Sequence to fold (424 residues):
Amino acid sequence: MRYTSLRFRARLVAFSLLPPLLLSAAASSPVPSSQAPQGARVKLGIESFVERLPRELKGKRLGLVVNHTAVLPGGDPLHKALLDRGAEVRAIFSPEHGFTGRIEGGEKVADTSLEGVRIFSLYGKARRPSPEQVAHIDAFVYDIQDVGTRFYTYITTLKYVMEAAAQAGLPVYVLDRPNPCGGVLVEGPLLIPEFESFIGALPIPIRYGLTCAELAAMMKGEGWVKGDVDLHLVLMQGWERHQSWQDTGLEWIPTSPNIPTPDAAVAYPGTGLLGGIILNQGLGTDEPFLLWGAPWVDPDLVAGLMPREVLQDVDLERLSFTPRTIAGKVQDPPYKDRVCQGMRIHIKDRSRFRSVRFSLELIRVLREQYPEEIYRKSSSLTRMFGTDGLARFLRGELSFPDLLDNVRSDEELFLRQRKPYLLY
Fold:
């Protein structure tokens, strides 16, 4: 098992070697591409964890922080695989969209049960495990496929679970999975404390280029988690930072109702912002976050004013679409039941496409060409962006070059800051 238990002092990561099969990251590196068999599949943290349950967890009461994505490549969910091996699963904690992943974003999720195991919602009456719930377990195990975007709430749930564990003196085991946006590019400003919320609880860029295990390590190492959490990471084998999802050999499981494909996940860090100016970004269609449009847009005019460098990794296809209510996905999409003129994004190079930069340039053109149509006072846009920079640009208080300079400065700072926490 590729496994590491982390202890952090100041800003440095220290890896400890634990017998007999618990190897440090330094002692067991991912297989380089030159040595990995062509077409080999990435081995997930969940596989190693189930194959060789850590010795210190034998006989312990486990609380799983999971949803429908916590499955082995063969299809068995984590809770079933552990129960079949005699482990004691005492509770399940589910994030936004629920344990099944089929509940519309923003809709509260109720507690339920599965095969006699209580499922506690962390997106209902409470968003943190309660002391009463934590009292019935000995360890947390986190395994949720993320999409690498700051305003995707699964990482806030991870932070809150780590804090609950620190308060209770319990360990947290994070089973690692690939970042669909890759591990090289970072995009967007660092979130500032003034705009912290459940959709943005960490001072990281919009697209942060870390796996969930790396992000958990950074949360602990940078002191973003209250308390001293006992963090254990079960790493992948064969994943490399430059890989897109299509390179991993893994089947894609829609992470939430409106992220049905890996390309939607790659586009989401940028096109997710477009709803804040009341542009439809494909919600209410079969291709969320890969379309953009509105009844008042001339898409050819807009596309013609976009900089060539942001279009080199995508093709834009003009189309008309009509957003509709889709049960379990979206009730009231922007411009519901109205014909929108817009474009479909065809991503040509997933490793190079900068979805945030693309969307910022799109917002710039729309502001120039349609100043009376776009919405400029969206608090949700500011929470997603993480600073007031984009809002100030929309109000004419900040130039676009200055906005981009501020974003680049934050990206460069984060690239340096994250280096000690890269595990692959």
